[in-house]
Amino acid sequence: MHGLDAAFSALSDPTRRAILARLAQGEATVTELTEPFEMTQPAISQHLKVLEDAGLIVSRIDGTRRPRRLAKPAIDEIEQWLAMLRKALEQNYNRLDRVLAEMQHPKKGKSR
Amino acid sequence: MHGLDAAFSALSDPTRRAILARLAQGEATVTELTEPFEMTQPAISQHLKVLEDAGLIVSRIDGTRRPRRLAKPAIDEIEQWLAMLRKALEQNYNRLDRVLAEMQHPKKGKSR
User: Fold this and answer.
1) How does strand A57-59 pair with strand A68-70?
2) Which residues of A touch B78 (CB under 8 A)?
């Protein structure tokens, strides 16, 4: 499965997006995430597993703690895909602008 | 369902992302999309339905044609969500940088 398939699929859940928004502010453990989200620890763990499998978060070991943080490369990949889409969209708009301008002010000597 | 739920879910499929990339270059009908994607027309129509239900594309009626184009507001919404994530991430990095700088060069008169 393409990395973007799993990443976009993981992002389709509002709780997972909220967890990512929280982790963007700094790393947190399952315990630290459980309280603000008012969910059970297994439910949070399941969401973290989906996010980790999709490459959106990574964990590190700190004694008995296992804090999670956002994985910047995955965020970068999503942004790059959107930037490609945006660029094509803008080139298309620019092309339409030129066509419209040409229709309003046809160049001399050009047969229409 | 939140708009972002449906949008990200629709984006999790590689064919649908490719259709969006094609439509970013300009509007196209089902027939025009069927050939480059080497898929059946019903298969393309099904993908277009998912994209339209998610608000990512819109269609217009042009005689017997029904060209689809990208829906800019939905793309804007996704980009805004990612920009929020990116901003939080960078503020977090800046904060870490300050903490590290402070550890290396503690301010005078501040007990540590």
Assistant:
1) antiparallel
2) 82
